[in-house]
Write a structure and sequence with these properties.
mainly beta; globular; 19 strands; 7-stranded antiparallel sheet
Length: 301
């Protein structure tokens, strides 16, 4: 029995050594040719065209990088399950983070097909949409419309009547949560693009930071866009009361969650519960960029 165990261990080690030497292995650093090819692809292309698994594991039954634990989850593309989104037309959705995990928000992908449109969220639910592929048109009750393209976003206040319409195809990442009111503060319709947001100071850190929503107390969450160059990492090993929902938009790296260390790449989604130790380092030869949900401006009591 011991000899069988040793043989099996040798086979597994051999497989991963082979992967580390492979030019096309999962999470391997891109070659110069691959970097040049990336320049011809649309921004965030890897989110909707991810590397599902290294070639030597594609025929391994049951293989997935997805992990679900009490205080965090890594949801990788090969695990996404799509079904028609309620009240949306011609749109499939994959729910990635929900209160069933322990979160107080929902995060999902909405894959809109030709001539599709969104539904409205439930009463008192606020919504933020971020376009990772294609384009949609945002229309509200005043009959004004705004085109949202890749890297654009819109915040829709609770009970705000609107429609997101798609003529060809588009992929959105959507955040929704029940709005937590604070006195007489109210939120407003906001739309824009990442590039139009100013870089903010990050004392003691080297990453670049943009925030998509105002600092006003009216808003009970914000969305951070964080950029890391290869080899850069978080200096602070964070432990805090805030929850996170993260989508890696570009690049690859290592994420520490609790006592676990996960290789991650564009297209991966992470849920972080309050007080889970967390840390990130960017690997490879290209920039890492991720989108991060964070609850703010409310007393945790």
């Amino acid at each position: 029995m011991r000899s069988l165990h040793l043989i099996f261990s040798f086979i597994i080690i051999s497989v991963f050594v082979k992967a580390s030497k492979s030019d096309d292995g999962f999470c391997s650093a891109p070659s110069i040719t691959e970097s040049d090819e990336k320049k011809t692809k649309p921004i965030y292309w890897k989110v909707t065209n991810p590397t599902l698994s290294p070639s030597h594991l594609q025929d391994l039954p049951g293989y997935t990088r997805s992990v679900y634990k009490r205080d965090h989850a890594l949801i990788t593309p090969e695990s996404h399950v799509y079904s028609p989104l309620p009240d949306w037309t011609n749109t499939l959705g994959a729910y990635l983070i929900t209160p069933a995990m322990g979160s107080h928000f929902v995060m999902y992908f909405a894959t809109m097909k030709e001539m599709s449109s969104s539904g409205l969220p439930p009463k008192d639910i606020e919504r933020l949409v971020f376009v990772v592929e294609g384009a949609v048109t945002l229309t509200n009750t005043s009959t004004s419309s705004t085109k949202l393209t890749v890297d654009s976003y819109a915040y829709l206040p609770p009970n705000f009547h609107h429609s997101l319409d798609c003529v060809e195809s588009a992929t959105l990442v959507v955040f929704e949560r029940r709005y937590e009111r604070l006195g007489s503060h109210t939120t407003e319709l906001i739309f824009g693009s990442t590039d139009n947001q100013p870089l903010l100071e990050t004392p003691g850190e080297v990453f670049e930071l943009r925030k998509l929503l105002p600092f006003s107390l009216a808003y009970d969450f914000n969305i951070h866009i964080m950029d890391f160059q290869p080899g850069e990492f978080l200096n602070v090993k964070e432990v805090h009361y805030n929850q996170h929902g993260l989508l890696l938009l570009e690049g690859q790296g290592i994420y520490r969650l609790g006592d676990n260390w996960y290789p991650v790449q564009a297209g991966d989604v992470i849920w972080m519960a309050p007080f889970v130790p967390q840390w990130y380092a960017a690997l490879g030869k290209t920039r890492s960029r991720y989108l991060l949900y964070k609850d703010v401006n409310r007393n945790p009591l």
